[in-house]
Every structure is written in C-alpha cells, then in structure tokens.
C-alpha cells in the first residue's frame, strides 16, 4: 500500500501542471516591481497623507521620544489605519509578536463592535466597525501558554503585546477575499519582563547606537560634520536556506512531519558529490513557487532580491536587500511564513530544519551584519585605504574584541538540538567561533601592530579603486573588473565579506533575533570598553592625538589576535590550533548552554540593560526545555516508527523468504542467505528498541533539567544513531515494494 502511494505521488508530481500566478497589472500590462513594492504596507508616508499635519507631527515626536502616545494621536492613527485596511478587505486586526518558540504568534480580533442605545422605546443595538487608539497600542493575550522559563507561574498569566512603532503595519490576505491587519508588536509580562525575541533585540540596538555615537564623537575632530550623527543602526541581510520537496511524499514520512528531519534513510548513489545543483537552473515547479512567494513578499514590503539553487539537491536560498535589523528579522519571519504557505499551494513542502537529510548539506541562515549611521553610511566600509580610516579601524577592532571576549555567548546563541547536526559536522561553520578577515585587512592590522608601512601583496595591481583593486582578465574586449578587498572563506563562522560581517553559524530554523541581540550586546559593550581606553589615553588633553589612537588600536589588535583565522575551519589542524590559542570548542548544545550564565557574559548583558537577571535565567531554562523536548520527541517518534513500520516490514520480508525456502527445499540457498542477513539486523534492532523504551522511561524520571540535558546522549541520541544504521542496512536489503516510506532518492529528486 505504502509502495503504491509512493508511486502515485511520484506520478502525480511529474504530471502536475505548474501553477500560474499573474503579476499585478496596470493598463493591461505588467506593473514594475517597484510599483507594487509595499502596496500592502501602511507606511509612514501613507499615514502622513491620511492624518492632519499637526497630529502626524505629534505622532512622530512621540514615537521618537519614546513617550506615551496621547489618546487623541493614537485614536487618529488607529482610525486612519482601520479605514486603509478595511478598504483592502480587512475584517480583523492582530498584534503580531515573536514568542520564544522561533516563530510568530497572532490572535485575531474583528473590528466589529456593538453599540447599545437605551431609550424609552427600549434597548437598541447597532453594529459598527471600530478600532481605538488603545486597541492599537496594546493588547493583553493570555500569556500562560507561551514559554516563560518559569519567570511567572500560570496563575499570573497576564502578558501584553505592545505595538512596535518602528516596524510598519501591513495587511495579509486571508480566505474568501478577506484580509487581516497586522500590528508588529513586542510581548512583555505584567512586570515588564521580555517574553519575546523582539524586546531584547530593540534593547540591544539602542545599546549599540549609544555606544557607537560616543565612539564616533570621540574619534572625530569637532569640526567633522559626521559628529552630527544622532542614531546608529545595525543592518542585517538574512540569507535563508531551505529544502523544497514534494508534499505528497512528505506526507508519507512520519519522521519529517513530526520532527522536521528524516530519522532514517540511505544516501542515493548520486546526491551532491557532483556539485551540479549549486546555482543550476531552478526546476520549473520550484521557480514557480518561489516567484509567487516573491510577489507576495514584495507587496508586503520585503525587499527580496536573490534566489538560487544551493549545494544539496532540492535545496534553495532566498535573500533580501539588507535593512535595519529589527525590520530584517520581522521580514525573515514573514518570508518563512509565506514560503510555507505558498509552497502548500504548489503541492510542495518547505523544510527549514538545519539538517533534514543525513549526509547531505544542511541549511543555515547567514546573517550579514553591519553598522550604519542615520545618513546611511556603512561604518564597516573599509574605503580605498582602510589603513588610514580611523573610524573603520576602531569599529573593526571593537568587533574583533567583542567576538574574542564573547565567543562562548555567540556560540550559545546558535545552540539547538537541530543546529547541532550542522555545526561541527564537516560542512557548515564549525563550533569554534573565529573571524576571517582576508589577506588585505590582515596586512592592514599587522602593519599597525608592527608599526611599519603597509605592503600591497598583490604585486600586479598598483592601483586601488573604489570597492577594491583592479583585475586584468587578459581579454582585450572585456573591461577590467574590480576585485573585492577580501576573498571569500566559506568555512568561517564569522567572516568579513567586503563591508559587513557574515555570521554563518545561525541555524535556518531559528529566529535571527536572539543571536543578533547577543552580537549587538557584545559589540556595544566592546565599543564602550574602547571608548574608556581612549578616554584614559587622552587624559586631560582636549583632543586625541593620532598616536593616542594608534596606541589603543595596537593594544586591541594584539589582544584579539587569537580570534582571527583565515585558514580552513573544517580541518583537524584548526581544532588543535584553536586549542593552543585558548579558543572555546563547544561541540554541542549541552556544552554551550551554560555560557549564558557565565558571569563574563551575563554581567555584560545585565550591565547594558539587554536582559535582567530573571530574564537570563528564564531564557536559559527555555533553551534547555526546548532541547530536551525536541530530543524526546525524536526518540519517541523513532521508537514508534521502528516498532510499527520498520520491524513489521522486516517480518513480512522474512515471512516471504521463509515460504520460498519451505517450498524450494534444498534449492533455496539464495533465499536462505538473504534471510540469514536480515536475522542479526532485526534482532539487534529489536533489542535496541527495548533499550530505548527503558531509557526514555529512565530519562523522564530525571528531575533536574540540567542533568536531563547532560544525559540526552547516553539515554537517547547515541542509541538512535546506532539503531538508525541498522534500519538503513535494512533499507538496502528489503524490497523496494515493501519499504514503508519514500526514500532519499525519491524525496530529493522528485
Ligand atoms: P552571498 O554571496 O554571500 O551568498 P547574497 O547576495 O546571497 O551573498 O547575500 C548577501 C546579503 O548581504 C544580502 O542580503 C545583502 O543585502 C546583505 N548586505 C549587503 N551589504 C550589507 C550591509 N552593509 N549590512 C548588512 N547586510 C548587507
Ligand atoms: Mg547567498
């Protein structure tokens, strides 16, 4: 039966017509992308058009000044946005927020209100549509079912969602031509503790802005107009990797459905070794689905830009143009949601798990990160001569220092049961956090450290051009091209890529919010440290001299040297070398979790006002709980599938062999051999399942969460790994017709 279902799904998939979606039209022709970009977003511009001028100015002032919005202003904004949204079919509104589950949450309320009129004739009820300022500003969902890490007990269930005015509202299509108004929000408890991912990200953005402005003011001469910068943003461009597979086949894999990854499966003879999928032509169904995703995202104001095949078969990537971090995080979460939804319409299933297939490349969420002034100037732009660019050098050194001091914290920020399959496996960034700078910047830092002139190591290129150095391609008809100041290093977890850093260790499934919050916090703290060092160096003088600046730079260049590594991060030599350098190698999540409580990190987070002590404890608890739950679910799913799907199939196979042996008697040598082969595998598997069952029971009896985390390997994961190899052996012996689930070759190549 399963076999027939598999064959039918494969046939269906090949015969399925491609779903066509029309690009928005104007005057009978296609609209340009820029013309419908953000058409579902209630932008500040739209708001300005719809509000009386003084009220709009009041709104902007109150928003910037972080003041409580007065009733008149908030009511006016609420009215304007309701009319705008209802004209687009909105019947409901929702405060859209990011609990610590990795995804988003929403509760819909309709605009419908009943107005009662009491008169001498009796009681009359009139239906009206209404939306007040206070409804816009905050809502009070029951918070008791969201993770809080024990910060509050269930009877103190109050939580508040509060409109994050920095992120614009938008409408999203619902069923039957209706739509819903989305109000991006933060989520806090009755006591004001952060229960979500966004509050802490916004706090960390403020911390970095404050510190960075202080540094800029200190190193710029007073006549420098750049000292007028009033806000620094962290910018973020998130490359999202994912798999897209046939939905019907997916439906036949219980492991994928429950755990997000395949718990069994043999590698097909051809998978990714030819590297022929990377940047190849996208399959038509996939391109059709991704194009529809893009159409929706463009309307939602998500600036999607890049799409391409990734290294593994059926693996793809989408990336937007970078934005202010908190908006970029919102937009990444929206991208994931829209991908999920639209894939469904195309009979595809998107997999965001970091490692859905053993032996095949996993997926990450590469976070391209930089700092920008409110004038849009990139503070990590090395310009033509980074060696003379104080501003660039100080920010660079601050980041080196942040990563050096808080590498353990950054490692913690990407720790999860699912990302463990990727980090440290021989493909993705390793668990050792280090920084790649490239030859040119390394030489810049070395020359400062050694107090000598800089050497240009590319002898053929004397001329440095904007954006890099010139390369002569030696074909006269082609123009000279520009070489970036840094080459690429795909193995580094934290790489400088021209004018930004790329934090590659982040998992594809997780929200970028937490890792970026930790990065922002570490950099903010490091900038402050450098500011203090500069002030000390300056002493009572009015201005910093060049020598003062060099002294401080040199100190930090030397101090942070161990964190710089340009070689192959996957090699064994690096593991040894990193140990000599004293770098942490936190191979898995249980080893990484406690970093959050380490005083060096925890104190930094508290001092900068990013987390309170109880918030740190609660985060830590939530991470541990999630880890344990994920692995328990995997173990129970594994046991269930082996006992109810795999072993029965093995028995059936053995029965059919036994019947033939009975029938053929002495002529049944080949069948006997096949039977002999399965016997030890089945016996071993049966025993392993008995042990797994016992282990799960024992595991559940462990009361202390930290102890549970530490015991996952001996009780759960190592046994699953061993048992999996036995199942995979069976997959290669049992006839295709009997095998109870779609195989890797079918999942990856259909
Ligand atoms: P790659 O070649 O590394 O795969 P992509 O083009 O896929 O690069 O993605 C690079 C990402 O980096 C894009 O999202 C881009 O907008 C982003 N990016 C570029 N400049 C900056 C910057 N200054 N700050 C943050 N992100 C940036
Ligand atoms: Mg890319």
From TrEMBL:
PROSITE patterns, alphabetized: GLNA_ATP, GS_BETA_GRASP, GS_CATALYTIC
Family of the protein in this entry: Belongs to the glutamine synthetase family.
Coiled coil ranges: none
SUPFAM superfamilies: Glutamine synthetase/guanido kinase (SSF55931)
Superkingdom of source: Eukaryota
SMART domains: Gln-synt_C
Residue ranges occupied by any GS catalytic domain in the UniProt entry: 197-646
Species this protein is from: Diversispora epigaea
Pfam family, one: Gln-synt_C-ter
Domain GS beta-grasp positions: 91-192
UniProt-listed GO biological process terms: glutamine biosynthetic process
Record-given protein name: Uncharacterized protein
An MF annotation (GO) of this entry: glutamine synthetase activity
PANTHER family attached to this UniProt entry: GLUTAMINE SYNTHETASE (PTHR42974), TYPE-3 GLUTAMINE SYNTHETASE (PTHR42974:SF1)
